[in-house]
Specification:
about 425 residues; Aspartate Aminotransferase, domain 2; Aspartate Aminotransferase, domain 1; four-stranded mixed beta sheet; alpha/beta; seven-stranded mixed beta sheet
Length: about 425
Amino acid sequence: MATISPLLQRSSEVRAVRGDGVYLFDADDRRYLDFTAGIGVTSTGHCHPRVVEAIQRQAAQLIHGQYTTVLHPRLGELTTRLGALTPAGLDCFFYASAGTEAIEAALRLARQASGRPNVIVFHGSFHGRTIGSLSMTSSRVGLRAGLQPLMAGAVVSPFPDAFRYGWDDDTTVSFCLAELDFVFDTLSAPRETAAMFLEPVLGEGGYVPVPPAFAAGLRERCDRHGILLVADEIQTGIGRTGKFWGHEHLGVVPDVLVTAKGLASGMPLSAFAASEELMSQGWPGSQGGTYGGNAVACAAALATLDVIEDEQLVERAAELGPRLIGGLRGLATEHSAIGDVRGLGLMVATVFTGDLGAPDADTARRVQVAAERAGLLLLTCGTAGNVVRWIPPLVVTAEQIDDALDMFALALQKADVR
């Protein structure tokens, strides 16, 4: 009997048969409040009518026009639309299907354009699962297990996670920038460094926002040494953090911006943007892919951007994020096992710790399971697996936030969290 690979690790036992807004339903029509959003993908909720209609309309006209063979109207429309949303000068786009493909393409461009072999990434980062992007990933050692040695030239520098270090932000930033300079002295000289890749908020690594002072330090060093700064906005982009792009919280502008996940409400689509000058320094023929810029996916992305604008979902994330964080911090005052609550917009984390602040993955998992039984779907993350992350669709309401908090409180009680 054929089966799905046993190597996949599922976070829940739910078998969803349909979705509607922030809810998923199983075959018995049990309703679950979905605060996973397909790992931050269903930004406009499940089956938003305008997205569904755009997909249906496009599928009846042209499903696939492979864009190194023929062009189709939706691709040009999406490029124009994204060009109005990306920082000035980042107006040249490459499209792929998955975030990892776009990261690989950005890596390839950085190396070709600079003639330099190395890239610098940061502890806890997640950039993908294909070999190049996986070589730049350090969110969990299990992702790399059995595959090393990986691609050469990816150098890891400390990330300013003040909670993990037990310091204040200023001390942590100063330390991590000094360690980055030490990396230049010991592992990757600036003249050999093509780019730095940075998530504005660590994703898989634990939902840790980047302090603006750290981003400013990276920007200064990149400018001084001719190094490209690449913003991995695969999870933070498209309004997730309460601004359209996560890097807007940091006061710096990247040289390359990578996006995926929430871009097309569940259809597979990713992209990266750079200046036309930078993009032209890559090698002709070095970019491609069978499914990149698929016509149906582009139609879904255009509808997604319409919904985000018309329903003011970026503003909603900015408004409701503090409500979610405040509610979770209130619960943290009642449960010492919640060591930290952090995040930006609707990208929020609760961190579970045990004695002396040690990561407590077991409690995080027990709470996640108890939340599922209460009707709330959540995911864990973090290098130790002790972080429960909150990524509801951006269409979530204040009442649904409150419902989720009530379910979480019940889950804490059922899981016997102190």
